[in-house]
Design goal:
Layout lengths: L2 E4 L2 E4 L3 H14 L3 E6 L1 H7 L3 H8 L3 E4 L2 H9 L10 H15 L2 E6 L2 H14 L4 E6 L8 H11 L3 E5 L4 H13 L3 E4 L3 H5 L8 H5 L3 H8 L1 H40 L1
């Protein structure tokens, strides 16, 4: 499996189909595996949050959740084959589970949203075996009980609908104990699947403007995440690119003469 380095973060050089294919191999192995995705905001946060950074780096697959990550890989000279959005991957895994009768455990979100997700799955993906479900509102002293509930469900796929860094830290602490072959942190994707939050139009997704659509939906909650972290991401990318360009300029003549 090939990887590229995007500003210090490893990212798997596979497209969405490749991720789904790897997930099926994970299921066949019956060993626990973790699929993570990174966007501009998460990549910036990883630089200041050691546990978040460790969790993402421990993943068996790391996808480029946003087009800025794909564009950065192109600018830095080692392009990714495409975007692997967390919501898109969840839907593709549900489609495969529908066809192959895989068992899926749904974990996170509010009780109301979780119920809507389960209703949607029963309606649109009838071949999916619902191994179990647990909303995200439980006390810290109930964590071990939830881990046991997930392990005893014998699921093939686990979707964790927590935000960052909560879902990454949950996986860091409990991946082995949950014993699920495919663990995918889907963030707010349950809200999308339940129809609570609409996704940006396809053209905005491909143009890298999905963040702007989300900002317009919830400006008070999202402005810091997107405006501040996106600015930090661009500054970091400029720094990395300029450093590579200057280094290449300084070492280029020496390399030429050596040849």
């Amino acid at each position: 499996m090939e990887w590229t380095n995007v500003m210090g973060c490893p990212v798997t050089k596979l497209d969405l189909d490749g991720f789904v294919g790897e997930a099926e191999e994970f299921i066949a192995s019956r060993r626990p595996h973790y699929i993570a995705v990174v966007n501009a905001a998460k990549l910036v946060s990883m630089r200041d949050d050691r546990e978040l950074d460790q969790s993402v780096r421990s993943a068996d697959l790391i996808g480029a959740d946003g087009m800025p990550i794909v564009w950065a890989s192109q600018l830095l000279g080692d392009p990714l084959p495409g975007r692997v959005n967390g919501t898109d991957l969840m839907v593709r895994l549900l489609e495969r589970a529908d066809a192959k009768q895989y068992r899926v455990f749904f974990f996170g979100a509010s009780p109301r949203v979780l119920d809507q997700v389960l209703a949607c799955v029963r309606r649109d993906y009838p071949g999916v075996g619902i191994a179990g479900a647990q909303h995200g509102y439980f006390a810290p002293d109930e964590e071990r009980q939830v881990v046991s509930q997930i392990r005893d469900a014998h699921a093939d796929i686990l979707f964790i609908a927590f935000g960052t860094p909560k879902k990454e830290l949950w996986v860091k602490h409990y991946l082995a104990d949950m014993a699920v072959p495919v663990v995918h942190g889907v963030g707010g994707s349950f809200d999308v699947l339940a129809g609570v939050i609409p996704r940006a139009p396809r053209w905005m997704q491909l143009a890298g403007l999905e963040w702007l659509f989300r900002l317009a939906q919830e400006p008070r909650r999202m402005w810091k995440r997107y405006l501040i972290t996106n600015t930090a991401f661009l500054a970091l990318l400029a720094h990395v690119w300029l450093r590579r360009w200057v280094w290449g300029w300084l070492t280029g003549p020496a390399n030429e003469s050596a040849r």
